[in-house]
Amino acid sequence: MLYELFSVASSCYYASKQRKPDAQRVRLISRIKELFSMSRGSAGSRRVVGWSLSDKPDTDLACRALEMAWEQRGRPKNVMFHSDQGS
Predict the structure, then answer these.
(1) Could you report the per-residue pLDDT of 29-50, keeping only the tens digit for each?
(2) Considering the entire predicted model, what is its pTM?
(3) In a domain, 2, yes or no
(4) Is residue 44 part of a domain?
(5) What's the domain count of the chain?
(6) d(CA 83, CA 58)
(7) In a domain, 27, yes or no
(8) Are 37 and 60 in contact (CB under 8 A)?
(9) 74, 51, 80, 78: which is closest to 63 by C-alpha?
(10) How many CA atoms lie within 13 A of 68 on its CB side?
């Protein structure tokens, strides 16, 4: 069981599993979804080939994710990048 793995009492583990998400957790979940949308996927597949983390969704974040994707694909020549994400 997970509570044994983390060395906590089972009552603490199950109490935390049953409580409703608080405002901080809701913000974290929405932030994770936002960061996931900033990842760059390979055309024709759902595999993420480039990603980056930042405090704010800005141009630098998108550029770092794009550079990682470019590196992962072996720095291909004569490629075009298009995004409808607004970055």
Answers:
(1) 887 777 766 655 555 556 777 8
(2) 0.45
(3) no
(4) yes
(5) 1
(6) 14
(7) yes
(8) no
(9) 51
(10) 16
